[in-house]
Specification:
The chain is mainly beta. It contains 9 helices and 100 strands. It is elongated, with a radius of gyration of 57 Å.
Amino acid sequence: MKLTKTALRELSAKYRAVLMKCALMNMMIFAGALMPHTANAGIMTVDKNTQLNQNTSVTDLNIEFASNGCDAKNCTLDGQKHTLSSSDGKNSLTITTTSETGYGGQLNDITLKASEIVGNTTNATGVELTGDVIFDAVTVSDIDLYGISGGSLTLTGTMKGGSLRGDQSFTVTGTLDNVKLRGELDNGSGLFKFHGIAKDTTFLNYDSFNLSDIKSEGRTEIHADTVSGNYYSSKSSANSNQINAGETLVLKSTDGTGNGTWNVANTLYLAGNIYGDLNGNGQNLYLENDASILEGGLKNIKIRILKDFSWNGNIKITSGSSGVRLFLGENHTDAKLITFNMTADVENVSEVIADNVTVEGHGKTIITPKLTVGEKAYFNDVTIKSGNDLSVSTEETHNFKNSTLHAGNRLDIEGDLINLTGNSTLTAQKIQAKNISVNGTLGVNGELFVDGFTGTGGNSLLVFGDDAKLNTRYSAYSDRIVRFSDINIQAGKTLEQTEEGIHYSINGSMALTSETEIKMNRLSNLYVNGSFDFSKGSLSIGKNNIELGENAVMKGNAVVSAETENVSTVVLNKNAKWIGSLSSVNNNDNVTLEINADDFTLDNDLKIAKNTLHALNIQKNLTLAGGAVVDMNAVTARMPGIDVSIDGNGTLRANMFIDANSYSFKDIAIEAREKNLDIGTIADFTNNAISAPGAITFHNAATFHGASFLSAQSIKAKAVALDGTLTVSGVLHADKITGGTLNIVLPETAVTSPIVTADAENVTLTLDLKNVKGKEAQKYRLTNTKDGYTVSGDYGKYAFSADGDFADYRADKDAFSFANAWKNSDGTLWVMRISGGAQAAIDDLRAAGIFVSPTEENASKILEMANNNPFADALTDLLDSGNPALQKQALREIAPTDVAASAFKSAKNTANAVMNAVSGRLGGSSSVSGRSGGDLTVGESSVWVQGMLNHAKMTGGFKADTAGFAAGVETNLTDEIKAGFGYAYASTDIKTDRSKTDANTHTGFVYGEYAPDALYVNAMLSFGRSDYDDKAKLSGMKNSYKADTYSARVATGYALGVLTPEAALRFTAVRQKAYTDALGARVSAKSLNTATMVAGAKAAKTFTAGKYAVTPEAKAALTYDLARPNEDRTVTLPDGSSYVAAGEKLNRLGFEIGAKAAVRLTNAVEVSLSYDGAFKEHYQDHTGLMNLKLSF
């Protein structure tokens, strides 16, 4: 049914009445539509402005905008916010336009509800939308719409096909499926563009999409393989590519199965969300809101964060992304320091650029192959990781705290310095860095190429993994140095270099904190300019040099593993000190020790193993201290022609002394390293001992001052000047000897060739006769001539003859003196010992069947070494007496060890006596009152005093008598616990066949007991110091020495009425001090420990008669020494030889008994006497105690 103005004008007159009737009927129907009701099926024709006054449903509704009204732009269907539905939305609705002028009609403020809305329109005759228009249908198909500014279109379903134009403030909401977006002519481009607002809109099935055609609001979803243009927000229409908070852009492929791609042409600001892929050409993407979501693939995009930001997992850059650069902070002088807070990993970025930023990683990971660090960039608790190579580059300082740099292959750290604090780690197969500053702990896993390490904070540590290796970055030999300063190292079993020529330089301090071998390869050097402590590990060097700078200190043991000679050099500069050892694996003299200081002291802190040094190279003055022994092939001068001085108390062991103009030696020992010793320059000696198994050769003049000693089979010299005494053992050939004293050591048997061959001038000749022991006269050719010699010396035990006739020597001993015999000689003398000495006496005693112990025989050797000793002379006279009893006694008194043995046992006895005195205070009663003993009780505390006597005896050994007292203070801490302390003094007389010894011992002790009922546990600790003064019986020789005694006792028992069983453990440790006796023998210190188990019982019962009370007590126990000491002592003689004197051990098993009687005379007076005895095979001791107690 159609009714238009054009149709009415064209009707003929004869039909006018009929048509008027139809028009009236049609008006009635339309007027009815203005009231809420449900109309019958039909077409709603809109040919003028029409209003809908109520919600209306029309069966199978079709809306037709008639051309007669629309041509005049007068066909608006105004819903006035009401709903017009087709069959209550159950059936479809069709919108048709018939205008031929381009204006198809208008919908205003209306909701069209249908199962489907279908358009029958053209682009030229689209329907205008004003106000708020809602299409409430599942689909809207093939309709052309034009949104007017200020209006909106809401699609509850999907708009498919058709077209949509929109003015700038027009808003569309819903889903658009392949809808053509059209608009008014854009004067700027000459194109028609859609300028409307897409609010929460989805665009489906677009091959390509231009974001510039719309303004987005809320959520915009675009299904297009390619998206171009700029994003415009309805909230900031003036700014392109600004995605605001609350706005979401979703990019999917045309078919909706994957991501769509936006080709971003301009800078993008993200405060909202983007789902989809972004392609750029180096465009910037600013993340302005850490609540924003970015999820998709990125290519050639710069992500920039310019303010505090939380990376919380909302930014997900998917795999396959490339060219993604993440900028954290800004690089300019006014930039603010921002915080980049990570609670999720950063993945799939090609590079991270950090400027003026603090990265708080919280243990998360940034996965990137490249990190560029600019000004003021700090990384805390973060891992920077790459599966392959990782480059960390900057011109500024890197700052990492508790962080890890991890590369699957290679890690390159470029820049002058990287600061690593806390617990940080570098991990890669190959790591390269310049300088690393460590404040805390740095773990290194892989092969590290570095210029140097600097420790800060005072406790910096490098921890190298098991497979770690340490090298330098540079290829030039002179620059291949790894520098260390104030840092420690912890490593696995071995830390080694992989390349040759890698040098280590240590400044400040460095220490090795684990059992690690630092292994340096060939041609590598170690420079120590501070302190280097590798004592917990070791240093293995090959063809390397080690140099200690001025005042440098190095601690540890170094091993040279090179196989060729003279390949390594150790240089010690002024005041440098090496504490440790230097040795060679192959013992092949492959190290030169250079002293690079005018004055240097080399002490025994550095122990150089034999066959390690090729040469000792001295600059000027060297002091050997602490008994240092230096073994080398040759001693040389660092610069030929200089004068070298060596002094001290050490030993030089060498084959030759060369290269210097002269050598000056003082107080040191010089030994041939092998067989012969060559001194190739002018030499000056003061108080030196010089020896060689073979020959000693002085190739130039030699001067001897003080007391020096030459010992060799053959000694050759040119001019020898004496300013003091030179003792010679061996054959001496010299061109000339001038001045001083020449002391010749005679061998045991005759010598027919001259011992000394030289032209002599003003030389005093003396003899050392210690080797001449036999009773037969021996012929000695002393000198080639007696000219130039005078003789001196008193040799009372010997007789001398120029012709070998000693018939009258007993009648006139002076006639057979050295001086008289020399007058008549030509340099040849017969010498005979007229005193038999110790060995002769020993032989006589053994021949008589008298036992001489090995200790006595070994000890007697000291008589040959004790010169001008009155005790030695007295003992020698006893040995020469011929009286076996006196000879045996002399041998006893020479040996010092039986004194020490008796001292040990007496010290132990004294300690046990003190224990017995205190144990009487214990044994089950926790109260200090009512105890037997000389105590004075005051309330809950008491003071007590006890006297004690002891007698000990060892069969064939010694007797000892001791008198003393013990006193103490004790108190009840509770009803069950008692504690006390005290002091004891003991004076002991020790008698042996050898001597009499007085000993005074002072002892302090503490004790305590816990006795809750019949069960008790008590303990005691004590410390005593003993002073011993010994005097031999015949010679009167006196010796003094000391010993400390530590004792402990723990006991437990249980009182069963009269009987109380008890078990105890005793420990005694005697620490005997070392001492030197009057003959010069050194007796070593000794620690003697004894642990004894005691098990026994005691019985006691009190009997009363009026005011008197008697308490008898008896006890018995078995003892067994769980541990007993080795009483052997080492004795060292003045010549350095030593012997071991065997001690005598007692039987482990023993027993002890005791008895006690206590009498209470009154309530205030109690007296007691007690006895304790201890017995072992060949040994016994007895102790008596007297106690008096007064109670108040």
